[in-house]
Every structure is written in C-alpha cells, then in structure tokens.
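User: What would this chain look like folded?
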Amino acid sequence: MQIWIGTLALDIKGALAAAVLKLVGKLPLAWARRVGGLFGRLAILFRGEGLRVTRINLKLCFPALDAAERERLARRSVVNTAITGFEVATLWRQPWSRSEDQIVRVRNQQLLTEGVDEGQGVLVLMPHTGNWEIFGMYLATLGPSTGLYAPPKIAALDPIIRAGREATGTTMVPTNVQGVRALLKALKNGDIVMVLPDQEPETSGGDFAPFFGRPALTMTLAHNLLKRTNARCVFGFGKRVEDGFELMFLPAEEGIYSAEQNVSLAAMNRGVEACIAEAPEQYQWEYKRFRRGPEGKTRLYARN
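Assistant: Here's the prediction, encoded as structure tokens.
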C-alpha cells in the first residue's frame, strides 16, 4: 500500500511539473524573462539556498572583490539563474524559427566552422553561463551534432526535455560507456560534440585542477576525447542581451590538447573562466562546485 501511494505521489508530482513546464513554455521570451526575474527576486527576499551557495562561491572565487560589489553580483546571479529556467521552457516549446529570430548576434563562429569545413571533429565546451540550451540548439544547425543526455529524475519531464534538445537535430546519447563511444565516433566522423565542462564528476571520471585558484574536481572526459581524436576544441555559450541572445565562441588554449592530463584540465578550467568573464552575473554560481577537495568532502557549503 505504501509503495502504491508513493508511486501515485510521484506520478502526480511529475504530471504537475510537466503541466507547469508546458504552461511556462507558452510565454513569449520577454514575459518568460519578466516572470523568471520575479521568481529570482523572491528567492533573494526569502534568502533561498541558491543565494547562500552563490555568496559562498563568489567569496571563494573573487576574494579580492569589494564585499558590497560581491553581494550585488550574487543577487544579479540569482535573478539570472531564475530567468534562465523560464527561458529554457520557452525555447523547448516554441518553434525553432522563433528561437532563431531571437539570436541577435553570433561572435567568432569561424572558430567552429573552420573545423567543420575541414572535416575535423569539433568538441564544443559549453559552461553553465547565460543560456546554454539555445547555444546547443544552434550548434545542431551547423552540422551533425551529438551531446550527452541524462534523463531527469521526474520521468514525466523526459519527453519534453528530449524533444526540446533534439528539435534542431542533435543526437542525444546516454551518460555511460556507450555514450562516450558515440562521442568518439562522432568526432572521428568530423561531427560536432557538445560537453558541459563545469559539472563535478564522479571521482573515477575526474581529477583536481585549479578553478579560480582553488582545486576543483574536474571532468577528464574532454581531455580523453581530445587525446584520442584529431578534434578541434572551442568554448561557447549564449549570452543574454536585451533583445534576445548573443552566441559567443571562444578559443581554447593550446594547453588543452596536451597529453599531460593536469595541463589539459587546467587549460580547460581557464577556458571556463574566460567564458564567465564575459558575463559573470549569468554564470550558475549556485552550483556547489567545490563540494569535494583533494582530501575528500569539504565543509565549505555546510550551514553554520
């Protein structure tokens, strides 16, 4: 009986979440941003967990920044994170033609297209800055694209998210050994592969490298892909601007291609930092990036 009740509760929660996502997805982009901004300001008013973690991360990463300015940055970041969530719902639900019209500028696209035109696979590293969803959707219009996909914990959201991410032709592969093999094959075929480089991996899939001067458990996936292929590497994200989005491609340091893992990982984290520098308030600072240190779990995010 308890199992049945628990399953029913999950089904109801999933159906409600899917209904909300579909409803939000009907909002025009401008309204999605307004509503998202309102939710962000409410999160600040009620001192939500996101604001607490954001403050900790900014203090760790920008210790020299004036305390008042750091607080202003924290509040802007919380609002921007909320806006991203509402934007994504709209982007997943509206026709791609409308989303494409909301891309007002694309900077340095030649960093990618030169590799595609030469038949060279291109590994695109997309940090959690601005709106990475529209950036990924746009990449798939430039050539065959493959990205990793982990189904959400709420099963009812899976078809909505998957349909949104595959709307422009991206091939989604699982986050397991088979998925990594698919990424390798795509790069060797000269395709585009998308990876989010700033999530903390399992210890078996990462090593520590400096991130804003602090050791951060950093994924080794990108390093391994580059080591086993002749792929080009670039960074990119969708920056939120007044009239829509500015898509930005940034070059990777030469060190990212190093056979030495520590050199490659450090270069990758500096590439993430370069993306963040373009719009610090649009980075997802509420993510607990330093949960684990070289000595094990840290207490950096523990409540006093």
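The chain is about 50% helix and 20% strand. If you want, I can go into more detail on any region.
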